[in-house]
Write a structure and sequence with these properties.
Elements (H helix, E strand, L loop, with lengths): L2 H41 L1 H16 L3 E3 L2 E4 L5 E9 L4 E9 L10 E11 L1 H4 L3 H13 L6 E9 L5 E12 L2 E7 L5 E9 L4 E9 L3 E9 L4 E10 L2 H8 L1 H7 L9 E9 L3 E10 L3 E10 L6 E10 L1 H4 L21 E12 L2 E12 L4 E10 L3 E11 L4 E11 L2 H7 L13 E10 L2 E11 L2 E12 L2 E10 L2 E2 L6 H12 L14 H5 L2 E9 L2 E2 L4 E2 L1 E9 L2 E11 L3 E10 L6 E13 L4 H14 L6 E13 L2 E13 L2 E11 L2 E11 L2 E13 H7 L6 E2 L2 E12 L2 H6 L2 E14 L3 H10 L7 H8 L4 E14 L2 E11 L3 E9 L4 E10 L13 E10 L4 E6 L2 H12 L1 H8 L1
Helix pairs in contact: 5-6, 14-15
Amino acid sequence: MTKERILNLYTELEINNKARLVIISVLLTLSMSLIYYGFAYSLNSYNLTTKLINKVRNDLGIEVSVEDSDITIFPTVSLHLKRVSTNNGIFIDNVLIKLGIFSTTENPKISSVNVGNMYINPKKLGIDDLSYHATLIKLSETNILANSVHIDKIWDTAVLNRIIVDNLEFGRSGNDTNVKFDLLNGIKYTNNLSYNSGDKTYMSKVDISNSNFYFTLTDKFNEKEIVDGDFTAKINNLSKAASDISPYLDLIINNSIASDEEAEISGKIVNDNKYLRIQQIKLVSPNIEAEGTYWVSSNNLDSDILDITLSKLNIPNLIGGDQIIGTATGSVFRLDRTNLRMLVTAPEIDAVKDKIQNFKLDCYGDGKSFKILSCSGDISSGGNFVLTGDITNNQYRPKFDGYITLTHKDINVWLKNQDLTLLTNNNIAPLYFISKIGLTPLDYELQDFRLILSGQTITGDIDVKFIGGIKQLIGSIQFESLDIDKTNIEFIKSSYNFLKSLGMEMFDETYATKYNILRSIPLKTTIDINIDDFKSSDFQLDRLSTLISYDSGLLKIHNYILSNGNKVNIGGYGEILATDIKPQIKFYVTDGAIVLDKFSDAEINSFIKYSKNNIDIASIGFASTGYLRNLTIGDTELLDTYWDVLSDNVILNVNKIDFKIFDGQVHSSGNIIFSPMKINLAYGVDGLSIEKSMTYLNYMFPFTAGNISINGQFSTTGTDFTDLLYNLYLDGNFLAKSTEVLNIDIDGAITKLTSANNGTIQLTPLFQECVSTGSTIFSEAKGAYVLDSGVLTAKNIALTGAKFNAASGFAMNFYDSTMDLNTIISFVPVSIRNVINASPIKLKLFVKGNINSPDKLLQFLDINDMYRMQRMMYGSEANVRRSR
């Protein structure tokens, strides 16, 4: 290696070593500086935090406390505040403040601020749109803020897990300040703020938009007030825009405004010292046109004033759904800051198939409630309305309480305009309606309402609730009187006729479709109905009271009371189920008394004809049980009547029909078919009073006293009452006790026969007298009977009297009113009763002819008995018997 080469190499190494030395020296110096700078900041982190807190207090007027903090120096100096809270209820987590390179604890220079989560209560802070500008000015002027601020999320602590601001960015460059962030429902907010140092004013341009609307506000303001400005808005979907902007508007009009309703809104802002006037407000959409002015008060004493004139409002075209309220869970008006007077006028509003003319609304908010001083209008079909009241808040939702008055010269005209012709008639029906009214987003109620329709008065209360998306109606209605045939309330008449029709035309193949109306009612109902004077062509009542409910095709009558003086007093319950394969009808009577006129043949025939043409038990399921303390039909009184019937296809099974009549107890069971009428019953009668029975039959038969028990079978069939009587069939057995028969004196005949002396008695006059006067008491009478084709036949009748025994049989024809009775009477005279094997004397009684006046003949059965009787009169018969 040459000397020159070695020299160059040495020089190169020396230079590199110097460079390294310089680099090492710089690094050591920088490291020592950083260590010193970090150590200094670490020693003064408390002082730095305190300094920042003091600047916030001085510049913003907010007291701040920090729970924990630490500082880092690499790669930049940063202050980490883990938890920050303020005296006005703000809580902040994870604040990272980056300082400029020349910052000191005495003069911190903030380059940027990043916030993780901020928690605020807007209501407690009093944050609203009017205070936003002042807040923004103060934030932009204070030199504690960095040129760049980022907040991940701002949470509303008043509502659980509700993010009100997302991804907030705050930037400042010279005199310009920019703010942007995201709101709920995809709404983006940007604000460009420029400061003019010449007139010391700010120019602000605010843009709010999402996929449905775009809103721009340009205004000029200073530190004290807004000077002027203007705004425009274009909306693709008015309903959705309202929902996005305000939860309460969503609550009111969700699903109620047509989804394709576009709108444009514009206006100018002018400051006239006392008021900030938003004038030339215009709203234009296919179905709404409005102009107005909004005066915003510059102080807290005067009310804001909103004056709007609606030149066009087409409600039918605007409505896109059938639910105006009850579609959301609830929200509240901000009444605590409301100090607004609102005046709305409309020459004409296109309402639902009618027009509202001369509409006027005058209302104001006083900070505690929103008062509707007057809301009125004329109905073009001939009516008018007036509404007054207050809107207040409870814990969950707003509520309107007020009064409504509605009049109409003929409600039938209005109903026809609404295509409700089925509820109308041809009569003129003037209407007057007044009520206390209550409205919330989830229910509305009419309290103490009074409806006068064609002179008929109805009062009561109605409450409609929306629970789980289902409408529920609860009400109480009182009628002073109701005449179904004369009422102009067609809905009531139609409802009555509907219930009546369920028992008509049951053979028609379309019968089941009658119940469709019960299957399709879209609300639950519980209603208490009281009618003081009810009239119809079918019956009349002094009182009709019932509590009914409806839910999903089931109409329940929880209780009813029907009263008409002493004629009808019954109560019970029932139900109609329309959703089963066959409609189910159940009717129950728990107690009552009914007095009916005696049924005429014509009325019975009318019922049979009606049953034949209308009643088809196979088309429904039917069940009924009941109890009546008293049932009087003409002169017949039934006590403690019980019944239990149940349908089975075409048959109505009679499980029980029991009642008391004439001191006796009747039990029966069987079945009935209505078309043609067929009745089959097994029955039993215990202890029936013969005297009361004969009194009822006007002594058709000459029986009195005693009682009788009967059991047997009953059946009949026919198309009219005559057929039923002709085809009536009875068979069974009877047992009578202590029965007295009039106009026949068998005991007297025997007594006279056995007490005559010397044969002086004349038999023929004796027997004639005994079958035309006096009476005979049977201690027991029993036998079997059959009634067939109008002929009652009794056989093997055994009779027991005080002095005789008898065997009898008879036939009675009810069609020609004739009878034929044969009775063999056996007795043993006293004079031979002690004679061994003494043969009894036998008499024969014939009764034949017209039932009311038959011929009667009493004679000895055998001529030898007559001779024997004559010998006994002389005493020889006894001697002969003894000698034998």
